[in-house]
Sequence to fold (111 residues):
Amino acid sequence: MTFVIGAACVDVMDRACVEECPVDCIYTGDRMAYIHPTECVDCGACEPVCPVEAIYLDADLPAGQEDFVAANAAFFAEPLPGRAAALGSPGSAAKVGDLGVDTPFVAEYGK
Fold:
């Protein structure tokens, strides 16, 4: 299991979770943040600091938000809009910086 960021994060870029993560595995897109599924060590430090309670273990994601598991994984595994290659596992969100782009699912979410 890994932690996943759900719908409540869309358009709320508080970044408390990013600052709290001891392994720097929370990357920021344009409308939300994403937890790298293999870089995350499941410590749970991010969950209690999220002001909108958007972080869940993937198995505990609220009903109707299951697509966010795939969106979080796709952020790293598939080329993002405007990019030729997938982000992969860069090992450090700080090294990469704000990416300013989201998966197509998140980019269109709620519109």
